[in-house]
Amino acid sequence: MTNDNAVREARLAAEPMRSAGPRSGFVSGTWHSLRDVFHHSELLDLLIRRELKARYKDSVLGFFWSLARPLALLLVYFIALGQFLGASRSIPSFAIFVFTGLTAWQLFSDIVTGSTSSIVNNSGLIKKVYVPREVFPLSSVGAALFNFLIQLLILLGATLVTQQFPTGSRWAYFPLSLAVLVVFGTALGLFLAAANVYLRDVQYLIEILIMILFWASPIVYSWALVQNALAGTFWEQLYLANPMTQVVLGFQKTFWVAGDGQAFPEHLIGRLWITLAVSFVLLWFSQRVFSRLQSNFAQEL
């Protein structure tokens, strides 16, 4: 037993020292971080699988629960807003309209909330071994994308049943909107994951902000209502500056076929491209902040 310990200590001593702190240089540091994550891609895959399995452990219905929340919200909004308040009379195919927005929103919410708590939830592993800390928020992104795929299939099935399957050039909006959502959500997730280690109130604050952002996006009401109230004002441009507003509108342009005659903001494609570029800058900034703060994660946890 003593010999085994001696051999183990000798092997550990022979291992090169790995710094958990940031790599020097804005460009070279980012490159080293990306390469480090790529070298741990197998671990990232295992973390995604673990998160999905843990979420539905001992569950009879399994992945059905990833649909339960958006379907329940769809039912509530369809009845409360669509039938009782009469929104379905002014918004054609109201159920498809609402579920389209909820599908986009659920992905964004899962990415941000899951990433925010990812470091704290994996504190035991972080304090024991060295791995690039970015893999933990990224595993939340991967799990969220898997759940999104299930919801997307349900949405496409609904468009088939209602004979409103999207075709043609409208599909140009979908990959661009999805790219904005994932990049922007990941940027927020990385930054908030690091901040939450030092200030645990962040995860509770995010729940409130997520709720506010939900109502600040045209998910359960149409863009036409916003345009009628804010047309030509500074507040209209501020509303459109919200990345999730653009994403939801992009999803609606793709999947809400019955809304072809409805009002949409001008130059939506151009706005999405600009937001995507800004989101990549935010992602790079968030990664550098995350890298700067990660060296003290183990001590803070």
Written overview of the protein:
This protein is an all-alpha fold and 301 residues long. The protein has one domain (25-300). The chain has 16 helices and no strands. It has helices spanning 2-14, 26-39, 41-55, 65-84, 87-90, 94-116, 118-121, 123-126, 135-161, 173-198, 202-215, 223-230, 234-241, 243-255, 268-293, 297-300. Helix 14 crosses helix 15. The longest helix is centred in the middle third of the chain and has 27 residues, at 135-161. It is elongated. The relative contact order is 0.14.
Oligomeric form = single chain
Helical run tally: 16
In N-to-C order, the SSE pattern is HHHHHHHHHHHHHHHH
| Total domain count | 1
Topology:
Elements lengths: L1 H13 L11 H14 L1 H15 L9 H20 L2 H4 L3 H23 L1 H4 L1 H4 L8 H27 L11 H26 L3 H14 L7 H8 L3 H8 L1 H13 L12 H26 L3 H4 L1
Helix pairs in contact: 2-15, 3-9, 4-6, 6-9, 6-10, 6-11, 6-14, 10-14, 10-15, 14-15
List keywords for this structure.
301 residues, mainly alpha, 16 helices, 0% strand
Question: Could you give a short description of this structure?
Answer:
The protein is mainly α and 301 residues long. It is built from 16 helices and no strands.
